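pinning this so it doesn't scroll away 📌
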Amino acid sequence: MSDLSPRLAAIVDALPLRPGMRVLEIGGGPAAAARAVAQRIGDGHVLMIDRSAKSIALAQQNAAAEIAAGLMSVRQVAAEDFELLAGEAPFDLAFAVRVGAFDGRHPEAGRIAVRRIAAALTSQARLFIDGGDPLRELRLADLGAARPEP
């Protein structure tokens, strides 16, 4: 995609994506990565969350086609406040790029966010953040996050 920086392209390329997945992007900003993920998961779905109303508005504008096609949705919520909606299916994969709750800038928010995100994932789901080469996996079991039963 033309609006994907080389760094973001490397991150999306590193995600273990497959068709039909439900993917949660945490702190997606203008939705560049979410749109790229949506293109790679076929009939799957990407939910991009961000605490910023401005980012959500920009994402809605940039991803209007993906949202209209049902491939993507956006929700204004902080990671530490995130919960599945009634009847909403859990996610197969989650990722966050430059999110303070996950990169150590806000450790208390991070502890809460990990629990909230883990509760929204399937028992086999994986959580990735930037800071590796180009990603690193946060092993939810190692972080003491409660996981839902399958």
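📌 and the second one:
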Amino acid sequence: SGGGVTLEVEWRGLKDGSLVFGVIMDTHAGSVDQYDLKVLAILRDSNGKDYRPRSWDAPPGGHHREGILTFPISDPSNLGTVKYFILIIRDIAGIAERDLKWQLN
């Protein structure tokens, strides 16, 4: 939470060759529709590898926007060495960076 916008993110796991996250954005003032997580998000693993989003599937919602953020994985078998993921979301409501971490092991 910060800058009047709250983000809730849920790790949904690996599906169809992509890492999947459910994302909810809420505000009481203005709209969150202008924030394109396909542009603003990066996923980094514990090995230092960055992943760019494949898609941000979220219909406009004004004060409330909910959707699915996916990151393609070229070789899911390489995930066996990953200990955690950090989802980095930049430039939302004046907050330069929001970091959310999921421990896998």
